[in-house]
Amino acid sequence: MIKLKAAIIEDSRLARNELKELLKAYKEIELIGEAENVDDGFNLINKEKPDLLFLDINMPEKDGFELLEMLDEVPITIFTTAFDEYAIKSFEYNAFDYLLKPINQKRFSRSIDRILEKENTMPRTRTQDRGMSLDKQIFIKDGEKCWLVKIKNISFFEIVGNYTRVYFEANKPLIYKSLVQIEEKLPSDVFFRANRQQIININHVKKVVSWFNGKLKIEMNSGEEIEISRRQSYVFKEQLSF
User: Fold this and answer.
1) How far does Cα 200 stand from its chain's mean position?
2) Which residues are CB-neighbours of 168 under 8 A, at least 6 positions away?
3) Which of 2, 107, 18 is nearest to 10 (CA)?
4) How, if at all, do strands 76-81 and 52-56 pair?
């Protein structure tokens, strides 16, 4: 039986108690903590690393969306709120689900059952090296557009001035983080520093060809071509046993 760790970030004590009571029916879920504001919730998440997050949207000082922006890794997220107009916005953030308060028991059970079914049928991918799990998701915000993206679905990162462009599916948003900051958190057995400007996901490589001066040229599944520096080409060949 799987065991998921859950956290509740909610400013209403009544709502927190309601969620805790509903969770008692699920032995597969362990409540590891609760917080009543974004800053305390941020500290709780970083300390306990929950798999599942029940997140209120409308909280004092900072809202639930701002919490997601603060996190390097985002758990499975279920938004909880009394304000119906937030529903569409929450799904733009790719939340797993959205529950309107007061929470209906049947609606809650349906959401939890979906999570448990998904976790049982799709075991989480782990890496044996440093970095986060490939199935962990990160929050990306570019202007008014927002995504929750699994690490394994990102094909490559590329420096653009003071920003880094993230390539996944048909999207290419910019984030205000350096490539060095990003590289520190990525699993190094899957993500490879091709050159000074780019880090590639080797699981998204379609073709490798020899290039000039001992270099290699990579074609990604998405069609982009990336040149691996001469120094890194030797490392790449050794890593993939070319």
Assistant:
1) 17
2) 147, 149, 153, 154, 155
3) 18
4) parallel
User: Collapsing DSSP states into helix, strand and coil, what is residue 168?
Assistant: strand
- For 191-231, the pLDDT digits (tens) are 999 999 999 999 999 999 998 888 999 999 999 999 999 99
Using CA atoms, how far apart are residues 211 and 216, in angstroms rounded to an integer? 5
Boundary of a domain, candidates 121, 154, 188: 121
Predicted TM-score (pTM) of this structure: 0.75
- What are 7's strand-pairing partners? 33, 53
Same domain, residue pair 57 and 18: yes
Residue 49, domain extent: 4-121
Amino acid sitting at position 205 = V
Which strand (E) or helix (H) includes residue 77?
strand 76-81
Looking at the domain assignment, is residue 196 inside a domain? yes
